[in-house]
UniProtKB/TrEMBL annotation:
Alphabetical list of SUPFAM superfamilies matching this protein: PLP-dependent transferases (SSF53383)
Organism: Candidatus Gemmiger excrementavium
InterPro entries for this protein: Aminotrans_V_dom, Cys_dSase-rel_unknwn_funct, PyrdxlP-dep_Trfase, PyrdxlP-dep_Trfase_major, PyrdxlP-dep_Trfase_small
Source species, domain of life: Bacteria
Protein name in the entry: Aminotransferase class V-fold PLP-dependent enzyme
Domain Aminotransferase class V as annotated: residue spans: 4-372
The keyword Transferase is annotated on this UniProt entry: yes
Keyword Transferase: yes
GO terms of molecular function: transaminase activity
Length: 383
């Protein structure tokens, strides 16, 4: 029974073949650190790192390669923003759909005296923008938002949030875990102060790597949250204030950087618009297939234009974990069940603590994969 991988929202698979090739090239033929040596292989590694920053700038319509900080992952990027920007007594605004990559750092900061409010969301997971206006306080220092929910797939109107934040003079950080590589995304047009992305989901790179794009004025004000050696300014025991060294202590994930740079070249050759068109075609097929199926409740919007390829199903009267288990063992359909590290989102959508079965698609997902999933869902719910 061939496996049908529909857990792309957790991590994308397969990767373009060039990713493994580039990582192998680094590990077998380059091997040198960056910022620490001037010999040829070190310069080659430096060049690939710069190319990666340049590609991130192109992809996200961002002008400052030095401010495209490479992180050990999206969770780290979000921690750098939350931990670096908020002090006891400060106030932060998040949505009622956040992932624990935001909520856990925020709850930890709350124990130190940071306060926060959640923007309420409707039953599909969309923000109540009018309510956001009323949440700002004189001490509000940051707004953090998941661009698309990893539970409902709903894509928020980030441009509207950006305009509201600008009117209040409050920095806006977007968690684009589920949209980067899936939707065209402009740092400039969304009015962002920070954009955090993982390498390993829609951006097709390896795990253990991400990027945090920082607007220059925000980067200046942001305290470094993790500090250490940078290979630069080695006469000082203080973290350099210049970018990107301020936020990049320690030896970076160079095999990952090589792999991600190759992944982004592959992605840019396809173009995000074409990836979005593919996502939309698959979404229409999946949504049409589950519409009106007895015993199946689809979370999130029915309109494919307002979502990404993340589909949570709640099987009425069934144990969702058992459904996911049977999808795998009897049909080879690989999904993810449970709360998806986002208890807040499930509370908003009314599926806490029961959870859902999540099907998620990517560039390498085919119509046949969707049809196989739909046939399995139909067979299981007809029992
Ligand atoms: N935010 C959202 C919306 C996510 O979906 C995820 C990954 N599931 C994260 C943050 C955390 O990303 P990572 O695990 O790659 O650090």
């Amino acid at each position: 029974m061939p496996a049908v991988y529909l857990d792309q929202a957790a991590t994308s698979f397969p990767k373009p073949p060039c990713v493994a090739a580039a990582m192998t090239e680094y590990l077998t033929h380059v091997g040198a650190n960056v910022n620490r040596g001037v010999y040829g292989s070190a310069q080659q590694a430096e060049l690939v790192t710069l190319l990666l920053r340049q590609r991130l700038c192109e992809l996200f319509d961002f002008d400052h390669p030095t401010h495209a900080v490479l992180t050990p992952g999206n969770t780290w990027g979000l921690n750098l923003v939350l931990g670096g920007a908020l002090r006891p007594g400060d106030h932060c605004i998040v949505s009622a759909m956040e992932h624990n990559a935001v909520m856990r750092p925020l709850q930890r900061l709350a124990k130190q005296g940071v306060r926060f409010d959640r923007i309420p969301c409707d039953g599909a997971g969309f923000l109540d923008l009018a309510a956001l206006e009323g949440l700002f306080r004189p001490n509000t220092k940051l707004v953090v938002l998941a661009h698309a929910s990893n539970v409902s797939g709903a894509v928020q109107d980030a441009a509207a949030v950006g305009r509201i934040c600008a009117a209040h003079g409050v920095p806006f950080c977007l968690d684009a875990a589920q949209t980067a590589g899936h939707l065209p995304l402009s740092f400039r047009e969304l009015g962002l102060s920070a954009l955090s992305v993982p390498a390993h989901k829609g951006l097709m790179g390896p795990q253990g790597l991400g990027a945090l794009l920082l607007a220059p004025d925000f980067a200046k004000a942001l305290a470094p949250y993790v500090t250490g050696g940078t290979g630069s300014a080695s006469d000082s025991e203080d973290q350099p204030a210049y970018m990107p060294d301020k936020f990049e202590p320690g030896t970076p994930n160079l095999p990952g950087i090589y792999g991600w740079e190759a992944a982004l070249e592959f992605l840019q050759n396809i173009g995000v618009e074409q990836i979005r068109a593919h996502d939309l075609a698959l979404s229409r097929r999946f949504l049409a297939g589950v519409a009106g199926l007895p015993g199946v409740r689809l979370l999130g919007p029915a309109d494919p234009q307002r979502r990404v390829g993340v589909f949570s199903l709640d099987f009425a009267g069934r144990d969702n974990a058992e459904m996911a288990y049977r999808l795998e063992t009897e049909y080879g359909i690989l999904t993810r069940c449970g709360l998806h590290c986002a208890p807040a989102a499930h509370k908003t959508l009314g599926t806490f603590p029961r959870g859902t079965v999540r099907f998620s698609t990517g560039w390498f997902t085919t119509e046949r994969d969707i049809d196989a999933a739909l046939a399995a869902i139909r067979a299981l719910t007809a029992e």
